């Protein structure tokens, strides 16, 4: 096999313009060939002209590999009918992943009263043999069946160095990977020996394979639910390629196409997406996601809203003693694989994150007035109060029964005459559970602010129980 490489072409020549090369043809044996229903004259000269035009095209074009059997052919259907496209090859151009054929259109011009001469333009494009045709030359030479010509040589990429913007493979399957930072869509996945086009072609080098993926990162637009929104979002997700037990860092997540030459045959190559210690991987060989953060991907709606708890008066404002009226806003909840406070849920688990608020109207003590001494007059003393969730539990509604206590409880509270608390409660629940009953107790602690009766204590203490808040997360 003889390998020939031709230099890179100028863009103008590569674009080409169609020029009709009218060819005077001599007869070729007794076989008759027709084109558009008219007999073709001097087909041997047409093929010679095609060979010359193709050689000129390659000489002024992209570097290419050809063999001794690479030449031009017309496409012949049964009964000598010629197609309108000639093929030249096989050929493997720099920047292309496969051996291919060049195609050029044929056209006819009159030759006498009842024949035509065939000519071609000089602008070639990629083509393949048509169905129900054979590749034919008047000199009897046959088309090569080789489909794996080597691509012309090029520069080796630095091993294990991330290379951005070299172009990806076919779109194929899109894999979506979720982290607290946002959603990363991964497609254009491929394992290859080379990347890039004609101008930036690189090879992986001996013993290496390129891993390539096209990435589209959509960051989280709003902070998580609840009052604990934290500072402006800082991206923490990182990327790497992995093979076997080796990890090759890429850097922070971003959109674009990334490639990396990695030692090995590429069969176990994967893209790793890591956020705060948990790594999710997309294997390049089959475009599959591997993760323990199952709550992100189980097709269950991730938010739910509970009913508004009923108002409750503790104590009796018509009788001596401490009393207050408590109320709550409706509870909202999130079912997730990650929480900023507690981190990643263990494998097989999810976080049930409950957010809500509670209020207490003026806490008062009703007793004998200090201002009147008849022993019968009554008065209220007032307290500044602070509320917080003191305990909480969650149970499942369906499936195997369980009850869990709160993993963590956070309260944002203000001490005022009308105490309020905004809270966040986190429960660790089985990842398969999707409907819950939540109970929690709000504790009110008060300090005497204005005393009007003789028996008012210096402090107040009350518990406001909230029972049976239903939370259901349906399938999307």
What is the compact description of this entry?
The protein is mainly beta.
What's the layout of helices and strands?
Layout: H1 11-15, E1 34-35, E2 38-40, H2 43-59, E3 64-65, E4 71-76, E5 85-93, E6 100-111, E7 115-120, E8 125-127, E9 134-136, E10 155-156, E11 163-164, E12 175-179, E13 182-192, E14 194-195, E15 202-203, E16 208-219, E17 238-243, E18 246-252, E19 256-263, E20 270-275, E21 278-283, E22 288-290, E23 303-305, E24 312-314, E25 321-328, E26 332-336, E27 338-339, E28 343-344, E29 349-360, E30 363-368, E31 378-396, E32 403-405, E33 408-414, E34 420-430, E35 435-450, E36 459-472
Parallel strand pairs: 2-7, 10-15
Antiparallel strand pairs: 1-2, 3-5, 4-5, 4-9, 5-6, 6-7, 6-8, 11-19, 12-13, 13-16, 14-15, 16-19, 17-18, 17-20, 20-21, 21-22, 23-26, 24-25, 25-29, 25-30, 26-29, 27-28, 29-34, 30-31, 31-32, 31-35, 33-34, 35-36
Plain-language structure description:
The chain is mainly β. 5% of the residues lie in helices and 48% in strands. The chain is built from two helices and 36 strands. The strands form six sheets. Strands 23, 24, 25, 26, 29, 30, 31, 32, 33, 34, 35 and 36 form a twelve-stranded antiparallel β-sheet that branches.
Structural class: mainly beta
Shape: rod-shaped
Number of DSSP-assigned strands: 36
Estimated share of beta-strand residues: over 45%
Overall pLDDT, averaged? 88
Q: Whole-Å distance between the termini?
A: 60 Å
What's the Cα radius of gyration?
39 Å
- Tally of DSSP helical segments: 2
Specify the biggest β-sheet.
12 strands, antiparallel
Low-confidence stretches: 1-29, 223-228
Q: Give the helix proportion (percent range).
A: under 10%
